[in-house]
Design brief:
The complex is a heterodimer of chains A (about 220) and B (about 120). By secondary structure, chain A is an alpha/beta fold. Chain A is built from seven helices and eight strands. Chain A starts with a strand and ends with a helix. Chain B has one domain: 2-Layer Sandwich (hypothetical protein PF0899 fold), CATH 3.30.2320.50. The chains are: A alpha/beta (about 220), B alpha+beta (about 120). The complex binds guanosine-5'-triphosphate, magnesium ion and zinc ion (ZN) (2 copies).
Chain lengths: ~220, ~120
């Protein structure tokens, strides 16, 4: 018995990157725009998808609802009569390209124009797992505290749209919405930042305008 | 167990999978030490990662092996004035320029020391 030392040089994130590119390629071929909906737990991700499904006329919507074990979000969205699929991670705190790869195999991509993928509610873990999406939406709400944006620079840095939800509750929870918006713009000057309240209908039109704009600009 | 903790667990499993592959290729009897490189922007806590590594290696030939973690830092600088930053803050406090981030997201298994 003797000791050896092997230079491995193995990239441990390579596999996820490879599968994410495969997913992206498949979605491109099917002319589907995929949106990774990320954000804090309970911030309003599922409600955003539900309201969007109801308002987006002229496009066929699909949704993959990620969660550790529950299927509640799936049931909520499926009620609206769109193609939906639950995707449970079992124990992982984020979706990854591999899980989404298998979900896409079973999904009727020919029947949809846009696919929402709700990630596990968490501002840290999903960040470094590209799913093959075209856009990233990151949602937080004022009830997480007005320092929640500043405390999680990475997820906001890599977002395309940043939504500060439940703004009508800001006074009640003593949150400074402007501070949250400023933090978001500072961390990501290119992102679209939307102040929203899904219960009061604030900011929803702005979101739909962004969505229609990216759907119109897709090729094909 | 918090969610963040599960996060280190999934990375620890990824390390173990790679280590076992190297061990099999070399017909190793035991794994003695493992060297990984991780980028600081992956937000992994090295202590928690070590703890999780000890958990996932239990009962394998890598049990009790030492996990050495080398943290490499992202290069963050202002695209306008070139000021270098330790962490990402978005906009340069000197000139208001946009910061550029390079690296900080890598995760490599670099070396495996084994008994064969
Ligand atoms: N007051 C208020 N409540 C909201 C708003 N948006 C969502 N909610 C409520 O917040 C709760 C969580 O909303 P969900 O849509 O389930 O949030 P989520 O981000 O999908 O939650 P998880 O999937 O569990 O992480 C629900 O009770 C919603 O009705 C809002 O703008 N204002
Ligand atoms: Mg949800
Ligand atoms: Zn995680
Ligand atoms: Zn500068």
């Amino acid at each position: 018995m003797h000791r050896i030392e092997v230079d491995a040089e193995m990239d441990l994130l390579e596999e996820n990157r490879r599968l994410a590119e495969k997913n992206r390629e498949l979605l491109r071929k099917k002319n589907v725009v995929a949106i990774n909906v990320m954000g804090a737990i309970g911030s309003g991700k599922t409600l955003l998808i539900e309201k969007t499904v109801e308002s987006l006329k002229g496009y066929r919507v699909g949704a993959i609802l990620g969660d550790v074990i529950a299927k509640d979000d799936y049931e909520r969205v499926a009620k609206h009569g769109v193609k939906a699929m639950p995707l449970n991670t079992g124990k992982e705190c984020h979706l990854d390209a591999h899980l989404v790869h298998h979900a896409l195999e079973d999904f009727d991509l020919d029947g949809i124009d846009v696919l929402f993928i709700e990630n596990v509610g968490n501002l840290i873990c999903p960040v470094d797992f590209d799913l093959g999406e075209n856009y990233r939406v990151v949602m937080v709400s004022v009830t997480e505290g007005d320092d929640v944006v500043g405390k999680h620079p990475e997820i906001f840095r890599l977002a395309d749209v940043i939504i500060i939800n439940k703004v009508a509750l800001a006074d009640a929870v003593d949150a400074n919405v402007d501070k949250m918006v400023e933090d978001a713009k500072r961390l990501n000057p290119k992102a679209k930042v939307i102040k929203m309240d899904l219960k009061k209908g604030i900011g929803f039109d702005e979101w739909m305008e962004w969505l229609r704009c990216v759907l119109q600009s897709r090729e094909g | 167990m918090s969610l963040d903790f599960v996060h280190e667990m999934s990375f620890a499993s990824a390390i173990l999978d790679a280590v076992m592959k190297v061990a099999r290729e070399n017909n190793a009897k035991r794994v003695k030490s493992v060297h990984v490189v991780i980028g600081n922007l992956l937000m992994l806590n090295p202590e928690q990662l070590k703890f999780c590594y000890d958990v996932v290696t239990k009962g394998t030939i890598a049990e009790n092996s030492k996990l050495e973690i080398e943290v490499v830092k992202a290069k963050i600088e202002c695209t306008n004035c070139g000021k270098v930053f330790d962490e990402y803050v978005g906009i340069c406090d000197e000139c208001g320029g946009i910061l550029k981030v390079e690296g900080g997201k890598e995760m490599f298994l670099k070396k495996v020391e084994m008994e064969v």
